[in-house]
Amino acid sequence: MEKTGQLIARIFLAQIFLLSGIFKISGYAGTQGYMEAMGVPGMLLPLVIALEIGGGLALIAGWQTKWISLALAGFTLAAAVIFHNNLADQMQQIMFMKNIAITGGLLLLAIHGAGSLSVDGRRAA
To answer: What are the boundaries of each domain within the chain?
Structure first.
């Protein structure tokens, strides 16, 4: 169960990034406009999409897990501070806390690794 549980946990963490990156492609102009309205340069959107899709796929595979998890944790924490900082709005407060929780899960993954059902696990064996 431990091996399977680690794989499932990685998939659960990764899916939000993978799907979010894919949705940003189909809503590119709107996402770019929202980023710019929040003070983030829209020209960073291709990097965001690459991090979300590439990072999501890497988490699922368990490849370079420590570094990918740390990169996604930093990204998720920054997104919480930049995009969900109106804590007087209950929905924004929930989104902020969601990002903090995801960051915590990513930090645990960075510390403990991907487990044996992963590219990293096979390399270590």
So the answer is: 2-124
